[in-house]
Structure formats: C-alpha cells, structure tokens
Amino acid sequence: MMVPEVDDMKGGNMHSPPSAPPIPHANLYQQEPSVIGVPVPPPSPGPGGSANHNNNNNNDDDEQVVEDGRQEFSNYAEFFLTSVGYCVGLGNLVVYPGRVYNHGGGAFIVAYFVFVLVLGVPLYMHDLKVGQFFRKGAYGSFSEMSPLLAGTGLAHVLIASIMIAYFNVIIGWAAIYLYHSFFDPLPWEGDTRTFFYQEVCGASAGLGDVNRIVWPVFGANAAAWLLTCIVLIKGVSSGGKVVYVTVTLPYLCIAALIARGATLPGGPEGIKEYLNVDVEKLQDVTTWVRAANQVFYSVGVAMGAIVTFGSYQQRKNASYARDGFIIPVINGLTSFLGGFAIFPMLGHIAQNTGLGIEDLDLSGFGVTFIAYTEGLASLPRGWAQAFSAIFFLMIITLGVDTQIGVAETVITFARETRAMGSWPEPLVTAVVCLGFWAISLPCVTDGGYYWVTLLWDYGNYMSMFIVAGAGLVGSC
C-alpha cells in the first residue's frame, strides 16, 4: 500500500490509494478550517444588491427601531431639551422658593446643592442607564432586570399616576391667572388671598365638603389635558418638537423677571435675604431632610420618566454619565436662578407692607398665587399686566413640560402591557389621557384645592425615597 507523502497532505491535497474507495465528502477536507463558534451570516445586500460591508452603528440603530417598533428622539437636542423640560418645572419656581424662605435662606441653598451632587446626579445616572440598556419603560426595564424588581418598576408608574392625576389642575389655576392678567386693574389687587381661594379655587370648608364643580377650573383642566394628549398622541417625535419652545421660553421669562425685580424698591433686600446663610438652620436636620426631599422631587427620580426618556434615546448619542451629570446640575442652577426672580418681589412686598420678609405667609402655594401676585399688583399700570402675563406663562410652560414627561411614563407602561400592546399607539395615548382626566375630576370641585394640596404634600415625597432606594439597591 502506498502511503501519501506528507507534502501531498498539506494544503488539503489529500489522495486516497488507487485501490481504496473514494473518501466520502472529500470536498470538505479541501476547505480552510473555520473559526470555532457560532457561524456569522454573510452581510445582507446593500443598495443595488451588493453586500454593504460598511454598516455602522447608525444603521444598526435604525434597523432596531424598525424591528421592535421602538420610537426614538429625532436627535440629541430633542432628548436633552425634553429631559431638561421634565426636570425644570413647578418644583423650581413654586416649591423651591418657599423652602428656601422657611429653612434658612442660604443655608437651604447649601444643603440643596450638596444633595444635587450626592443624590440627584447618581440617581439620575442610574435611571437613565436602566432605560438606555433595556430599551423599555420603567416597569418593563426593572422587570427584565429581575422579576424581583417588577414591583419597583410598577411603583415608578404608580407615583407618576398620582402626580398626573392632579398636576394639570395647577396648570389650570395658572391659566386662569393668565387670562385675568390682561384686566386693568388686576382683579386680585387688594386681596390676593380671597381671589385665589374663592374666585379661582372656589374652596369650600374642607376636604369632605364637596358641593359643586368649579367650572373655570374644570375648563382649564380639560384644556390642559387636551394639550397634553395632542402633544403625546404622535409620540416622542412630536413632543420633541414642542420642547424647543416650552423649554426655552421659561428662561426668557425668568430673565425678564430678574431684570424687573432688581429695580424694584426693596428688591435688593429680598436678594440679601435669599443669600443670607442662617448657621443655626444649617445645623438643623430638618433643613437637610427638606433639601434632599426637594432634590428628589425637582430632579424627578422614581417617577419612571428618566427611564422612559433613556429608552427613547438614540444609541449613538447615549451617555448616561454625561447627561446624568449635566441635567441635574442644570436643574439645580435653574432653581437657584429662579430665586433671583422671586425674592426681589418678596422684598418689595415687605417694604410696601412694613413687614419683614420673614413675616410673610408663604405656606403651600402661597409664594406663587398669593405673595407674588400681590407684588405684581403693586407695579405701575401696564407693567403689572405685562409681568403678570410673563410670570404665569412661565408657570404654564414649566408645568406642561413636566406633565408631558410624567404622562409619558404611564402611556409607555400601557403600551407595553398585553392588554393594550396590540392597540394603535394614538389610541393608547387617548385612552390614558381620557382616563386620568376623569380621575382628576374631584380636584376641580370646591373641595379640589384640598385634594390637590393633599396629593402635592403627601402623594410623592416619601414614596420617592423608598422607590428610588429599592431600584438602586436592586440594581447592585
């Protein structure tokens, strides 16, 4: 028997002995060995039928959107502005000044910025990364991370649901004030407290004393819900266009209010009170607790919106470290800047009334709808109407941005459920908006002020600590 030479076997040139039968599937022995592992399919044909070997991440992202039906922001600017608009809201101009006022001025500011960096930035990064990685809403992302975290994801949705149930009512109050801003004189001149509680809210004696619907609030709330639905019904691509106006306009309004406030009699005293650090308050645990609480509410963690926005971000633009730092810091700086728009007016009021700034009643919604409106009414005719319109237009746009972001959390959850997953997306949006408009109806009655205050004060704050902590620990 002839043995094949070694050289004949190299390069696949193997020959069988003449008397032996042919080797089965001999052609297999003539191919180059392949790399061990899962075979990689050949590249798909590109335009013109030729294989496109230059596929990049942009194409991969576009194909993924088509395959799973996931919407995306059209560009990074829309994602960024939507995220800033969600964070920068009523918490910055309505809640923050009152807390600064009640907790030591500059002392609260110091505690607030400490927690922006210690809590706000890490928690924002966490929620954003979860959305970017799992490409789902809050419930879907945490459920996919671990079935044990499904409750955490659902809690995000529940917190968002509580908020959107009453938030448009506050926007409605501001819309009523905007309408009355064009009257001369301003209708609340002389008694801002009575105008707010009786003329706007139609407040009864208490939470259980419900007798009628306050029709102006009913109409304003319905209009706010209609606007929310129209913006969201086309998805994030539509909402991304709206934010170019609704996010930039409040900053122009703040700049105008700062410029006017700095020239008011008593304005400089208001700024001094704003920046004055009360050392005793800095040593008070309550100041730090309220500051942490304000960061949670203002940044908007544990409401699911940050996760949702991250899931809609284009992969090529996704950077949870960059955006997770920049956006909370912008939010904190906006609060700080907003203080320069509010406190000069408080100093002006104090000078006109002969009271100290520390003696003003700024509890609840008092800063926005009682104290600040009193300062607006004291301005000269023409100026009063102009700056009143600017102020309440700012409040409305800030509120709309936040409401759209939080409502998107609930709508995304509904789209990802089995019950509504096969429905057309516009129908899901319309059903969710209609349902929560119906849920908000108790807030437009004469007992509505008390319902809004109850949900505002107790519906979110402590639950946000618990849910954010559970999500962070569960991710470790």
UniProtKB/TrEMBL annotation:
The keyword Transmembrane helix applies. Its main location: membrane. It is found in: Membrane. PROSITE patterns: NA_NEUROTRAN_SYMP_3 (PS50267). This is Uncharacterized protein. GO terms for cellular component: plasma membrane. Residues 1-63 are annotated as: Disordered. It is a multi-pass membrane protein. Pfam families: SNF. Keywords: Membrane, Transmembrane, Transmembrane helix, Transport. The chain crosses the membrane at residues 79-98, 104-125, 146-179, 213-233, 242-259, 295-312, 324-346, 383-406, 427-452, 458-475. The keyword Transport applies. GO terms for biological process: sodium ion transmembrane transport.
